[in-house]
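Support reply, case 0932

Customer input (verbatim):
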Amino acid sequence: MSFCSEVKSELLNLRLSGCCLSAYSYGFMLFGRSFSIKRIALQTASEDVAKGYCNAIFTSYRIKPQITKGGSKRPTFVAEVTSEADRLKILAENDFGMNTELIDDTIFVRECCFGAFVRGAFLACGNINDPEKEYRLEFNVKLETIALELQALFLGVGISLKSTKLGKGLKLYTKDSAVIEDLLTLMGASKHTLTIMDTKIMKSVKNNINRARNCDSANISKTVEASIKQRTAIEFLERADRLESLPIELLEAANLRKANPDATLKELCRLSTTPLTVSGLNHRFAKIIEIYEEIKK
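Our regenerated output:
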């Protein structure tokens, strides 16, 4: 089962309070394939979603839509109110009238009703990606007028969604994990809200580990490069019989490096018989390399 299917399964299994039922079924129908006097229908790849659509309409209006299955490789399910009289009843009972290209916000009796409405809308036309791969949640809305109204309603509760053209409609979407958490919370999918949060924490931990590893690798590379440069200078001076003529502090540093070719500066400071700081030792090696380069010229 995909992550999106799991989220929709959680939403379908939520119990609704009396005031939210109409908003829920309204969102389900309005954002389905068709919602008009001519046709009230939902097309989906999920049989559970199709059954949830039928249950919502039956519970709200005592009307039982029919489900038909099509396709062989990729089955699709169409849940439809086939009777015109039933369609008229649905439109008249909530005073939707003939204007089914706008959202009737009078159905939001209480604050909780909007969350139920969004839940129905998401079940009808929404999609969410697996957070392990990509943060993305979207509503594929068939009509631009309805999409713009939904976008405005979301803004009213502090949720900002981007939009892109989708035929005659719009795709409302977000790639912001925090906004996805807010949307899932609004719809009531608390279990999968926590999943998103856990995934963010795990990704953050992994990123920190990778950064630390990369940093360690970079530091090791720098240490090796510095050591090679220092040893090259020391070996050259030794072959040129100039090593022993170096000032005592530089000769001590050179001998320390010769004896410990792979050690870091910090390790060399600990091995030194005289007190040394990393910056002090680094300065001595820089002086040795400077002498080497001058002689080489």
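We compared this against your earlier run and they match. Two observations from our side: The mean pLDDT is 88. The radius of gyration is 34 Å. Please reopen the case if you see a mismatch on your end.
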